[in-house]
Amino acid sequence: MNESNEIKPKYVDILSLGGFNAFFGDENNKSAVMTIINELLPEHRRVVNIEYQPTEYPGPVIGYNKDFRYDFMCRDASGAAFIVELQKYYEAGWFKRCVSYASRAYERQNKKGEDYDDIQPVYLIGLMGVPIDHPDKEFWKDRYVSEYTFREKEFHDLLDETIVIIFAELVNFNKTEEECVTRQDRMLYVLKNSSKLLAPPSWSEQEKYTEIFKACDIDDFSEEKRQKYNETMQDEKRLRGQIAAAREMGQVAGREIGRKEGREEGREEGKRTTARNLLELGVDMDTIVKATGLTREEILAE
Predict the structure, then answer these.
(1) Distances in Å between the alpha carbon of 123 and those of 152, 155, 167, 233?
(2) How far apart are CA 13 and CA 196, in angstroms?
(3) Which SS3 state, helix, strand or coil, does residue 154 take?
(4) Residue 251 in contact with residue 36, Cβ under 8 Å?
(5) Mind giving me the DSSP string for 181-206?
(6) Are the beta carbons of 149 and 158 closer than 8 angstroms?
(7) In whole angstroms, what is the distance from residue 4 CA to residue 247 CA?
(8) Quick one: CA dihedral 6, 216, 15, 140, positive or negative?
(9) Residue 212 · residue 220 · CB < 8 Å
(10) Mutual orientation of helices 17-24 and 30-40 as an angle, nearest 10°?
(11) Prediction pTM value
(12) Would you call 129 exposed, middle or buried from its count of C-beta atoms within 10 A (0-12, 13-18, 19+)?
């Protein structure tokens, strides 16, 4: 089918970079954003208003640590911070990166370095387009939302809310519209399938998701927002093609080395070849790290 004859989606793909930015990055969508955040938060934590926050911050030590960037960040009236990260590629150390991002947001509240009473909790929500390597895979077979925080090991006592990391494992969520009977399943369905729908699900009004679909409706975008969205989607499509081509070349090189030196050596050579090809194409370092699972240092050593 020619591209010109393809049926264009009515709603953005929230799990694409362009769709994520169009949805979360537009302050007109505050209410819809809060609906999604609240559905993934613990029962006792509900957001009634949010203030958008900057997403780019310098490293802790100027000139030494690289700047870091959140995908989305906001605060509620209490001062609690909510970070939303989109994870589309396997990344070595991704959980440690989430802990680091949340920890930096938590520590930045401590202006004087003395009084910790006013420090508010930080919630990081990860929308996962890659699977989580749970130790007990059978337990997590039909579970899609996981939460990590500081609790006492034996009795699970929670002395205070500090840093909470929540993952929505969307890559493994494959329920149909009819199979989604809980609020959580319905929210995961919307996040996973927004761009595939021609109309909201039958239960969307019941769950008050109408505002989410309105915020995702491409026809309602301003000309400027639509143009920016289309450009970002084209860039992302081109990037996916570059990554796919680089990985294919990496696999060829990896198989050659694997025959000579062993499977593990071949796998590592495949990653290195992929990284070199992406560097030559001018792909940014963060994307190469996520696409290959190598660290920045390993990539630069090439």
Answers:
(1) 19, 22, 11, 28
(2) 8
(3) coil
(4) no
(5) -SHHHHHHHHHHHGGG-SS--TTTTT
(6) yes
(7) 28
(8) negative
(9) no
(10) 110
(11) 0.81
(12) middle
| Alpha-helical regions (H) of 58-199 | 94-107, 183-193
d(CA 266, CA 164): 38
Mark residue 137 as left, alpha or beta (left: phi above 0; alpha: psi -120 to 50; beta: remaining).
alpha
What is the phi/psi pair of residue 290, to 5°?
Answer: -70, -35
Q: Which of 21, 10, 3 is nearest to 214 (CA)?
A: 10
Distance in angstroms (rounded) separating the CA atoms of residues 57 and 46 = 27
DSSP state of 66: P
pLDDT by residue for the chain (302 residues), tens digit each? 444 456 788 999 999 989 999 999 999 999 999 999 999 998 888 888 999 988 776 655 444 345 567 889 999 988 999 999 998 877 767 898 899 999 999 988 887 666 778 889 999 999 999 899 899 999 998 999 999 999 999 999 999 999 999 999 999 999 999 999 999 999 999 999 999 999 999 999 888 899 999 999 999 999 999 999 999 889 888 888 888 888 888 888 888 888 878 888 888 888 888 888 888 888 888 788 877 878 778 887 76
Task: Name the residue with tokens 């208003």.
Answer: 49
- Three-class SS of residue 284? coil
**Would you say 101 and 144 are in contact if contact means Cβ atoms under 8 Å apart?**
no
Phi-psi region of 131 (alpha: psi -120 to 50; beta: other; left: phi over 0): beta
Give me 103's structure tokens: 């920890």
